[in-house]
């Protein structure tokens, strides 16, 4: 990027925190983003999202929202719909892409309809307690399987079930966070993520892939956020053919879901080189251990330039708001 001039003189509100189970991670993301904007000379303030958000935005005279909210309420289209309603531009994807991307079951349904490979699986609704044998038979699965909430991030509520005795607890844990528990095939192999940056002209930039080498092969919450616990290999040391394939699949996923700004697509790649999309993250973390900044740095984009790149998605949305208002008044 290498820009020195500010993209906007409008006051930016960095929205963070909220009520989701990812609140602490969101606060870390928001603080890092706020500090970056201030370093670049922007008029930016941080806002911890509460029931008084509308009044806070008015009191602080916010003109643009930089979304640093993770999990339900922040990534699922809720805050996006609110900001659309009051006509405030914001970073990242809109209501539809956010809502679809947050719900893993809907994401998989949409991707499968577009011939994008996803793991086989099924859904168990809260209140149901089918036997593991029944689920394995009906969904044509075999152990191990992954059980997770349909709409959570940061691997919260996720269990790898390797034995029958783990089934009930895994289901109960997933249902603690969402009415729908997704049960899907465990894909052994490499865990890799691909980040995508949307451009103002509608083009998308695919960043270098990152391979995640977690302890015990499970990239859980502590593995994600405790420094030194997990190794990250960027660019991922995989064959060029596989890197091209997951780059194309990541970009295709981004486009099919209608994403904007920054997004991150997570993959599992089998030892034979077959790739599966696990999920998409439409508000990727921006903490000191986050994968998006790591991939951007490998592509020659420093942290502050990355923040500005994401900010541009809000300015593009502001332009669309202005054009729509102009058409309505004509």
Structure description:
The chain is an alpha+beta fold. The protein has eleven helices and 13 strands. The protein has helices spanning 23-39, 53-59, 78-86, 95-102, 104-113, 132-139, 167-177, 221-225, 240-257, 291-298, 303-329; strands at 12-16, 44-48, 64-67, 121-125, 145-149, 159-161, 180-185, 190-198, 204-206, 210-213, 231-233, 262-269, 275-281. The strands form three sheets. Strands 8, 9, 10, 11, 12 and 13 form a six-stranded antiparallel β-sheet that branches. A four-stranded antiparallel β-sheet has the order 4-7-5-6. Helix 1 (23-39) crosses helix 11 (303-329). Residues 220-225 have low confidence and may be disordered.
N/C terminus separation:
37 Å
Describe the biggest sheet?
6 strands, antiparallel
Beta-strand percentage range: 15-25%
- What does the radius of gyration come to? 20 Å
Instruction: Detail the poorly predicted runs.
Output: 220-225
Query: Could you estimate the helical fraction of the residues in percent?
Result: 25-40%
Shape: globular
Instruction: Tell me how many strands there are.
Output: 13
Along the chain, the helix and strand elements come as EHEHEHHHEHEEHEEEEHEHEEHH
Number of helical segments? 11
Nearest-integer average pLDDT: 92
Helix-strand category: alpha+beta
Topology, pairings included?
Layout: E1 12-16, H1 23-39, E2 44-48, H2 53-59, E3 64-67, H3 78-86, H4 95-102, H5 104-113, E4 121-125, H6 132-139, E5 145-149, E6 159-161, H7 167-177, E7 180-185, E8 190-198, E9 204-206, E10 210-213, H8 221-225, E11 231-233, H9 240-257, E12 262-269, E13 275-281, H10 291-298, H11 303-329
Parallel strand pairs: 1-2, 1-3
Antiparallel strand pairs: 4-7, 5-6, 5-7, 8-9, 8-10, 8-12, 10-11, 12-13
């Amino acid at each position: 990027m290498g820009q020195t001039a500010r993209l906007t003189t409008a006051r930016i509100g960095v929205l963070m925190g909220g009520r989701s189970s990812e609140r602490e991670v969101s606060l870390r993301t928001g603080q890092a983003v706020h500090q970056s904007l201030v370093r670049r000379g922007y008029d930016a303030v941080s806002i911890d999202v509460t029931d008084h958000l509308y009044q806070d935005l008015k009191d602080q005279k916010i003109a643009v929202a930089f979304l640093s909210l993770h999990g339900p309420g922040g990534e699922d289209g809720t805050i996006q719909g609110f900001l659309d309603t009051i006509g405030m531009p914001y970073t990242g994807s809109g209501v539809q892409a956010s809502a679809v991307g947050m719900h893993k079951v809907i994401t998989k349904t949409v991707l499968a309809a577009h011939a994008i490979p996803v793991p086989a699986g099924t859904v168990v609704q809260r209140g149901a307690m089918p036997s593991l044998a029944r689920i394995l038979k009906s969904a044509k699965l075999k152990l191990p399987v992954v059980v997770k909430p349909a709409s959570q991030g940061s691997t919260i509520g996720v269990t790898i079930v390797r034995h029958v005795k783990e089934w009930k607890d895994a289901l109960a844990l997933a249902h603690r966070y969402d009415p729908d528990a997704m049960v899907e095939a465990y894909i052994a192999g490499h865990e890799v993520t691909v980040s995508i940056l949307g451009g103002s002209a509608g083009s998308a930039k695919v960043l270098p892939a990152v391979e995640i080498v977690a302890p015990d092969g499970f990239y859980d919450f502590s593995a994600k956020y405790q420094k030194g616990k997990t190794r990250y290999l960027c660019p991922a040391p995989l064959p060029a053919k596989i890197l091209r394939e997951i780059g194309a699949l990541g970009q295709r996923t981004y486009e099919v879901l209608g994403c904007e700004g920054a997004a991150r697509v997570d993959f599992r790649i089998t030892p034979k080189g077959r790739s599966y999309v696990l999920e998409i993250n439409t508000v990727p973390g921006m903490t000191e251990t986050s994968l998006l900044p790591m991939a951007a740095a490998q592509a020659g984009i420093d942290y502050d330039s990355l923040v500005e790149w994401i900010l541009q998605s809000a300015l593009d949305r502001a332009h669309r708001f202005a054009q729509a208002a102009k058409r309505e008044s004509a």
